[in-house]
Amino acid sequence: MALIFIRTALIFLTLLICMRLMGKSQIGEMQPFEFVITLLIAELACIPMADSSIPLMYGVVSIITIFILHQTVWLLDLWFRPMKAVICGKPSLVITREGVDARQLRKNNLDVSDLIESMRVAGYFNLDDVYYGLYEANGSFSALAKENRTNSLPVLLIDNGRVDKANLAAAGIPPEKLYAFLKERGTTAKRVLVMTADGGGRVYLQKKGRPYTIENMETDRQW
Predict the structure, then answer these.
(1) C-alpha distances in angstroms, 46 versus 49, 53, 75?
(2) What is the pLDDT of residue 28?
(3) Which is it for the CA torsion 22, 24, 27, 32, positive or negative?
(4) Burial group, residue 192, by CB count within 10 angstroms (0-12, 13-18, 19+)
(5) Is the separation of the CB atoms in 37 and 70 below 8 Å?
(6) What is the pLDDT of residues 155-171, one digit of tens each?
(7) Strand, coil or helix: what is 30?
(8) Which residues contact 83 (CB under 8 A, 6 or more apart)?
(9) Contact 127/119 with Cβ under 8 angstroms?
(10) N or C terminus: fewer CB in 10 A for the chain?
(11) Other CB atoms closer than 10 Å to residue 32's CB: what's the count?
(12) Which pLDDT belongs to residue 137?
């Protein structure tokens, strides 16, 4: 028992020193390669702590090796700027003044519902609350907010051509009313990238490959 305690304490001290030397980003919003390093270090630390038959030095050397690799990548990034884009990726502009950029969403394996969720976490509840929105290389969402934001909570009615019938029912909008609304504007659900509506009937409508527009539609209930 005492041996396990001592081995764990030594591994803990080694990890603490290495993580401190790696910098604050390692314990904050991590880049992809930093996340991989963190996973590897956690796995390498557990093995010698739990199995006394494995020499402790194996775990210490492995952790120090990972630290050296981290510093090597950091130096390459410092001396050769394109390396950062190769290893960590680069920010993706997913919202412009014309609306949602579907190509950038697909490039990052995201859909409109993922984007809306990220916006809500960041404090934006409408797609037109920001001039520009982007995903940083570490996956966090950043935005340039508009001066006057809408004070409403919209629901997603159409996501890349797919009608959300549950949200339609929650909004009190019969399907036939939605289709008639789209027909009046010369489109169909399949040709819509994103459509949201709030309790006051304010509609955000963006057809595929087109800038968004703000419309009005009467709803059967308020929320």
Answers:
(1) 5, 13, 28
(2) 43
(3) negative
(4) buried
(5) yes
(6) 999 999 999 999 998 88
(7) coil
(8) 73, 76, 77
(9) yes
(10) N
(11) 13
(12) 77
